[in-house]
Amino acid sequence: MVLLLVDDQAMVGEAVRRTVASEPDIQFVFCSKANLAIERANQVRPSVILQDLVMPDIDGLELVRRYRANPATAETPIVVLSSEEEPRIKSDAFAQGANDYLVKLPDSIEILARIRYHARVYRMQVQRDEAMRALRSSQEELLEANRHLRSLNDQLAEANRIISELARTDTLTGLPNRRVLDEELLRQLEFSKRRKRALTAVVIDLDHFKSINDNFGHAMGDQVLRAVGACLASRVRKYDVAARYGGEEFALLLPDTLRDDGAAVAERIRASISTISIPDFPRPITASLGVATLLDGENGTELFGRADAALYRAKAGGRNRVEVDPG
Prior knowledge:
Number of domains: 2
Structural class: alpha/beta
Radius of gyration: 23 Å
Helix content: 40-55%
Order of helices and strands: EHEHEHEHEHHHEHHEEHEHE
Strand content: 15-25%
CATH architecture of the largest domain: 3-Layer(aba) Sandwich
Strand order of the largest sheet: 2-1-3-4-5
CATH class of the largest domain: Alpha Beta
Number of helices: 11
């Protein structure tokens, strides 16, 4: 498998190189100049192209269009890297032919998973095309080729299902990711306004998480995040949403939940987090939580803005506590 990274930042190139260095089946090729990307792709014939969206030589979306116009890369999976999570930018990238969109730099688990699945889909598409050509060229191989084609299509459908799941799941904690949270927030806002139902948001931030990484290492920090994710998943209703908000932050959407009930849920979760025990980790895990309930005429940004403000008051008040927006 050949991975071509096109990015003008050497530090990004080094980070990706280190991520794949221990993967013997991945050949890493780095191109730092966007105007040489097509030529380099024609030379190495990549299985997957990772490409920055903002580069000095050529606009990233224009480069995606050029890949699609180039016969050698017309079908090659393109994963766009960007520092922005703006929906409009994502939409433009997909419209120009990108297969996936990552906010850089994702953790190594996620980036390897995306690379491998896109490479697998591409390989199966090539095999499927070869199988279809074999069907046209040989009547004697018709039955066998059909069986092979069905098998490849089944594998392709499964790979597409997994890719879709990866795009909606935080790979470290297994919780829904920010994309799912944003989609569900829009849906719940519409439902709440139409049916006049309550909606409460809870923002959760792990206390002193940076010191966990600094003093015990990122592997231990990952264990803490996974444990907190499992704790949240086990303590919400099936129609609630518990998602990783970003970094050491998590968020809950609680439909049909009034402010006082949401505060009670937050307090139970705070208490549950404080009981988490991880081997070889001597410190208690605590979290600060902010709670806000939807007001008439309010949008999602305003709702979470008030929950964030309550969270900051919880931190300022000593951490390991719940603060509720009075609105």
